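Holo model, 5-O-phosphono-beta-D-ribofuranosylamine. Inputs:
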Amino acid sequence: MKKLDGLKKINTAVFISGKGSNLKNLIKFSLLKNSKFNVNLVISNNYKAKGLIYAKNFNIKRKIINYNNIKKAENKILLLLKKNKIKLVCLAGYMKILSKNFIKKFKGKIVNIHPSLLPKYKGLYTHQRAIDNKEKYSGCTVHFVNSKLDSGKIILQKKVKIKKKENSKNLAKRVLKQEHLLYPEALTKIYSSF
Ligand code: GRF
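Output:
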């Protein structure tokens, strides 16, 4: 953790697998004046992840992890986290499930953003499932990661009203906009626990 003008900055790693709009948003948030977070490292299990381009453009260290062997992959990540003095891991569209062992080693320091109003609709295809079930609302949740999928303590949520006859693509787009507001708010909320 760096101290800048009395402000403690939290070294953060963002894990991605795909397009990385949340990563881009978190980088921008970290660059705001008086920001309390540094994005020091980007981890991807997928070398084709479009989000890697943001890490490159903002000159942030990026590592692509080969997942052929999960244990080796996670050990490599843990080493990178240690080397880079990472205190917080933000999952942002990371399509790999972290093992119990990994989560234990980084207990209380891993957060995730999920596109539903948890505890409803854990897992994939959240918006389609919400539409199929004729829900009035979808939304997004930032939560701590524990060993059960999408089940850790909720930090913050935002609701999004589902429009009449809305398709999941449109809904996902509108929820994503809210995700970009929610993730920084949630990190600000937990800052004092570091
Ligand atoms: C987001 O909808 C996030 O909630 C989910 O995966 C998506 C990632 O989008 N976990 P992006 O890669 O950040 O654009």
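The CA atoms of residues 153 and 182 lie 15 Å apart. The chain is about 35% helix and 25% strand.
Archived with the compound record.
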